[in-house]
Amino acid sequence: MALLCTAMAVFIVATVRQTAIDHRTQQLFVNAMNLGVQLRRSVPDLTESNPGQSVQVFDPAGTMVAASPDVAGGPPMINLRPDPDAFAAGNTCDAPVFPGRCMIVLAYPVHRMDGVWQLDVAVPGIPWYVSPQLIIPLATSWVLLVAAAGVGSHRIVGTTLQPVGAITHTLGQITSSDLQHRVPVLKYRDELRDLAETANRTLDRAQSAVERQLRFASDASHDLRSPLTGIRIRIEEALMEPEEADWSQTGEALLDDVDRMQALICDLLQVARLDAGVTGRHEPIDLTALVTGELEHRPAKAELRRHLRPAVMVEGARIELARLLNNLLDNAERHATSTVTVTLSLDAGQAVLEVRDDGEGVPPEQREAVFQRFARLEASRAKDPGGTGLGLPIARQLAQAHGGTLTAEDSTRGARFVLRLPARRCPDDR
Fold this sequence. Notes:
This protein has helices spanning 2-41, 132-173, 191-240, 247-275, 287-296, 318-335, 378-383, 391-401; strands at residues 54-58, 64-67, 88-95, 98-112, 115-124, 283-286, 303-308, 313-316, 339-347, 350-357, 405-409, 416-422. The chain has 430 residues and is an alpha+beta fold. It folds into 3 domains: 2-130, CATH 3.30.450; 191-275, Helix Hairpins (Orthogonal Bundle), CATH 1.10.287.130; 283-422, Histidine kinase-like ATPase, C-terminal domain (Heat Shock Protein 90). The strands form 3 sheets. The chain has a 5-stranded antiparallel beta sheet, covered by helices on one side. A 5-stranded mixed beta sheet has the order 7-9-10-12-11. Strands 6-8 form a two-stranded antiparallel sheet. The longest helix has 50 residues, at 191-240. The two termini are 69 Å apart.
């Protein structure tokens, strides 16, 4: 703003000064014409001082024949030699006759019977500030405008940045153990409100992630503590009466607890990798062949029935998709009365894999609860007390990592889990 005001002030002063110079030069020309009219009749009397104007008269030989008192007896005011039919005007500073001063000068030819005489007229030049009547109000206006602009800018910037200060203060209070704070949201829709809303959404995600991690750590420590406690108890019991202990039976029981703990640790590592976004390299996979291979090499715990459409292709990591399928099959065999049915089909560009069992099924109100980590229904705890409660959550995360979905859906009998993955178009498809 100061630069703009300065530029405007310089422009105004320069414009007014040039206008004043043009006006004064025009007046000087009019005065020269009047003196020229007198000079054509006779040499004018210049002994009386004309304030603000200096005059010198030269005959055709260049001899000064008359001059105003302030320049009489001095050197010529100017060295201009105009054409006989034209006048010449200009500015001169620090001339010998006008030391330390700037003057507007004009050389005016006058035609007489005896030749061409020259009339030199000079008046004081216009100073850079033109006049106090101009520069003082202009300088005062400049100071007031700059001051007003400075105060206004300070208030506007302060008001604008006040919400930023509040956001900074709130964010400074947030720690990993206290994520409850939220930054204030402005009333009006603007960039700062968008910033505040984005910050709050980020804090919501951070709080959810921290709470999920804390809950995960708590549940994991609880589930790890159970097999470790069982191992310790069995060892202590055997050591209390080592001679009467059945070490073979104790070893088998310990192996069961170790297997359970090993399965839990493997599940925890898988969950950690999925949470970190670590997945295998995706490649074209024949899902039909993968499902067929897993079913054929799987130990029979229930009757497995299959209805598989041939050559269903997807993009994915083979190991992860196999883990997903086995988690669903483990869950189905755990709850099945006698039969597990696996169906693979194509529907609207999606590969649809269904795993059904003929057990009790999942109540509609608990179909989402079974996908929560460490969540186990009463029926599941009764059938398999050693389960980890991570099989279905891991299966859903693997489905999502492959761009698909895993849901528990309606079934005429038992539970029905449906996996949907984007199908890959085969080159032979038409």
